[in-house]
Amino acid sequence: MGNKFIEEGKNLSDNEIISRICENDYSCVQVLIDRYMPVVVSSAKAYSVSPLENEELISEGVLAIFKAAKSFDPEKAKFSTFVTLCIKRAMSDEIKSALRSKRIPQSMISSIDGMEIESGDSPEDIVISRENLNEFKDIIRKELSDTELKVLSLFLEGKTYADISEELNISLKSVDNALSRVRNKLR
């Protein structure tokens, strides 16, 4: 029955499929997922860095299609526009959530390159911790400009604003602004 409906469902409009889903007829969800999977895949590729992230983002995109169908109001927009926005927001939210969970408390920040993993953990935990640390370093390098990265590194070495200003030949206000941007970007 499932394959037969999928073939028949391909001729239905988005609104017809959505009305069936809203009436708790979930047999047509696959048609909607198949129809919008190219949007999910292309959005995931645009957002992701690794294959693992890509799979997680695709899962979020598929869930977003279902949620979009359940909350769609045809009076406000076309479904294709609405679902595309829902997919991109779900992926963006997933990335933000992942970045938040990787954030290190301010009190624990020291020189990024000098960080060491505490021993006593299992070898598996050590490898995972190192991978997480390397991912965090990569995120920092991607998110920050060269100036922001230099200012952050000097600041983490314990240098004062005046020392950083003198060493990089920029104003105190530029140092303060750079550190402010760093804090905002790493939130």
Write a structural description:
Helix content is about 70%, strand content about 0%. With about 190 residues, it is mainly α. The protein has nine helices and no strands. Helix 3 (about 30-45) packs across helix 4 (about 50-70) and helix 8 crosses helix 9. The model is unreliable at about 105-110 (pLDDT under 50).
Write the layout of secondary structure elements.
Layout: H1 2-9, H2 14-22, H3 29-47, H4 51-71, H5 79-101, H6 123-143, H7 146-156, H8 161-168, H9 172-186
Quick tags:
187 residues; 9 helices; mainly alpha; elongated
Concise summary:
The protein is an all-alpha fold and 187 residues long. The protein has helices at residues 2-9, 14-22, 29-47, 51-71, 79-101, 123-143, 146-156, 161-168, 172-186.
- Please tell me how large the radius of gyration is: 23 Å
Give the overall silhouette. Answer: elongated
Low-confidence stretches: 107-112
Give the helices and strands as they follow along the chain.
HHHHHHHHH
Q: What is the rounded distance between the termini? A: 49 Å
Average of pLDDT = 76
Q: List how many beta strands DSSP finds.
A: 0
**How would you classify the helix and strand content by structural class?**
mainly alpha
Q: Indicate the proportion of strand residues.
A: under 5%
What is the number of helical segments per DSSP (H or I, 4+ residues)? 9
Q: For the report, how would you describe the main beta sheet?
A: none
Helix content: over 70%
